[in-house]
Write a sequence for this structure.
């Protein structure tokens, strides 16, 4: 499972409005992406590039 988020630097939390601004930036997209970086958070990673991340567990 994954989640794309935009970080609000002032509050130190993720921000849906900031993410929405990135998605709907249109012609302003280069400026919006430069000022409001996005992050990808990945949960429950079982395999990465063909390598199991679970150790010896099946």
């Amino acid at each position: 499972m994954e989640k794309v988020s935009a970080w609000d630097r002032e509050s130190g939390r993720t921000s849906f409005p900031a993410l929405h601004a990135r998605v709907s930036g249109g012609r302003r997209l280069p400026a919006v992406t430069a000022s409001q970086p996005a992050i990808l958070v990945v949960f429950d990673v079982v395999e990465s590039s063909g390598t199991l991340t679970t150790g010896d567990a099946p």
Summary: Residues 2-44 form one domain. Strands lie at 2-8, 13-14, 38-42, 47-48, 51-52.
